[in-house]
Amino acid sequence: MNAKRFLLKLRKTFIPPLFSVLTLIFVLLVSVKFIYLLESLDPPPAPTNQPFVKHNISCKAIYDMDPVEVGKSLIIRRKTAVEDKDERLINFTRNCPVFTKIRGYDDLCVSEEEKDFPIAYSLVVHKNAWMVERLLRAVYSPNNIYCIHYDQKSSAQFVAAMEGLSRCLPNVFVSSKLEAVFYASISRLKADLNCLSDLLTSEVKWKYVINLCGQDFPLKSNMELVSELRRLKGSSMLETSRPSELKKQRFLYRYELQDASFEYKKLPVKTQQAKTPPPHNIEMFIGNAYFVLSREFIQFMNSSPVVRDFLTWSEDTYSPDEHFWATLVRLPGVPGEVPRSQPDITDLMSKTRLVKWQYLEENLYPPCSGQHVRSVCIFGAAELHWLLNYGHWFANKFDPNVDPVLLQCLEEKLEEKQKLFQKGRSLTCPRG
């Protein structure tokens, strides 16, 4: 009996751990084999005539949240990312016919609806030339017009790459006036204003203007955007809310631009000097830096003494781009006015820009599958389906060094959607 009890006790204490260890070893062996198989399926580095690597992955399966394909994207992401150098884009744009052919700029068809409804873009950018090019290509249509404002502090290579894009694409130009852009200062707002002024003098009679930064990406094709913009019927779309007591501090006191010892170089610092109330009894609203505004709104803004006085008053406030547009759109009588009596329009209500904040994840939206930078999610491939179905037109942030698969799949899905929405319509296509 004692021997029997001893064997039973041994079985209970020893065999389960042994089974767990064997199971773990089996899982690890399968994982290693799976990783080896996936890595062997991934293509070699792109040849010199291709801008970047196209990974061997099914974007349809990623979109459908297939666990194997999503897992494969995670393995691709773990590999050491090699950032595409700005010099490579400089070299590509030295031969414009080759560049436009390889990137597909000269192979885009335009519907009559798109011809009748050109869109203008203001791109305020400062680094990662290839990311800017991929953003430009994603929103590109031959009948639209694009202004690029690069930071005066940008590297010589980045500047040359942006100049190369403007040289190769007839409807892309560099802003005639450039700013040295500092975080949360008036310079960020002035960069957009410089582009808006140039866009008004363009021969392209665009209907709406959209501003973007270098880590934005569209979630709608050009054909879809035209359809959505038509529905606005001249109204604006942007975030505009009543300020909290904390946000009021941004414009109740003067701020001075001072040297900073980290990446921003200079930052607006609060002083103890109180500001006078806004001119013309303007009621303050807050939002973000991004907008969808009609041509009529920009024309009004460009010639209004009220707007001019408000801009001057805003120069020594903190992050004026986050109250300037949100306030102007509430001015009585402005084209596309949002009445002051209307409730707040939050970032989730406005379709202008979808941003995922870390402290709101699992409450307002699912967790970030990429990584966080200063509480903002840089999206991962597992969010492809959510991004394309949430309803917004653009999202921020994207980075090919965080997740190259997501950008590749977004590009693929946008091309699919453009062709789908153009199907059966009268198209003007390049000859040949």
TrEMBL record:
Keywords: Glycoprotein, Glycosyltransferase, Membrane, Signal-anchor, Transferase, Transmembrane, Transmembrane helix. One of its GO terms (cellular component) is Golgi membrane. It comes from the Eukaryota. The chain crosses the membrane at residues 14-38. It is found in: Golgi apparatus membrane. It is a single-pass type II membrane protein. GO terms for molecular function: acetylglucosaminyltransferase activity. InterPro entries: Glyco_trans_14. Pathway: Protein modification; protein glycosylation. Its main location: Golgi. Belongs to the glycosyltransferase 14 family. PANTHER family: BETA-1,3-GALACTOSYL-O-GLYCOSYL-GLYCOPROTEIN BETA-1,6-N-ACETYLGLUCOSAMINYLTRANSFERASE 4, GLYCOSYLTRANSFERASE 14 FAMILY MEMBER. This is Glucosaminyl (N-acetyl) transferase 4. It comes from Xiphophorus maculatus.
